[in-house]
Design a protein that fits this description.
Layout (H helix, E strand, L loop, with lengths): L12 H15 L4 H12 L11 H11 L17 H8 E9 L4 E8 L6 H21 L3 E6 L2 E2 L2
Parallel strand pairs: 2-3
Antiparallel strand pairs: 1-2, 3-4
Organism: Sedimentibacter acidaminivorans
Protein name: Metal-dependent HD superfamily phosphatase/phosphodiesterase
Length: 153
């Protein structure tokens, strides 16, 4: 539901999605306080405006920004891939791991470096990873990024 605003436009989709979600959840009869928690999370998940304003928002940010994988690529013409396509297509596996004992939350990626360099990942995803760190901090967790077995953040 957090990306429902994309039906309107990718630009400001978090805010339009929050409004759309409000209408849906209100018509379902959800409690006002629960609606407020959910729509504030939706409205604060896009990296250009994201803020972990509550625990749900922090969890949504972590889940959304760690969602990198081959199946996200709709374009099947490798020759015409943009950097986002190359990065997503090269991800062979992606796991978001919570280790309760140490309070670590880890994005663990296995990537095919023949498709792109790890630096390409950082070129487009560094802001997202820093946002994940802020969301993890909100939840009193330590954020880690591991690519091909190497801890990078």
């Amino acid at each position: 539901m957090h990306d429902i605003g994309n039906v309107v436009n990718r630009v400001d989709h978090a805010q339009s999605g929050a409004i759309m979600a409000f209408r849906i959840l209100d018509k379902m009869g959800m409690e006002v306080s629960e609606i407020a928690t959910i729509i504030s999370a939706i409205g604060n998940h896009d990296e250009s405006t994201a803020v972990p304003v509550n625990e749900v928002a922090a969890a949504l940010i972590l889940a959304d920004k760690s969602d990198v994988r081959r199946s996200r690529v709709r374009n099947r013409d490798i020759a015409s891939f943009d950097i986002h396509d190359r990065v997503n297509y090269s991800v062979e596996s992606s796991d978001l791991i919570l280790i309760k004992d140490t309070k670590d939350i880890i994005i663990d990626l296995k990537i095919d470096t023949n498709m792109f360099a790890v630096m390409d990942y950082f070129e487009i995803f560094l802001g997202r990873m820093l946002l994940c760190r802020r969301a993890a901090n909100y939840l009193k967790l330590r954020f880690k990024l591991v690519i091909n077995g190497v801890e990078l953040l």
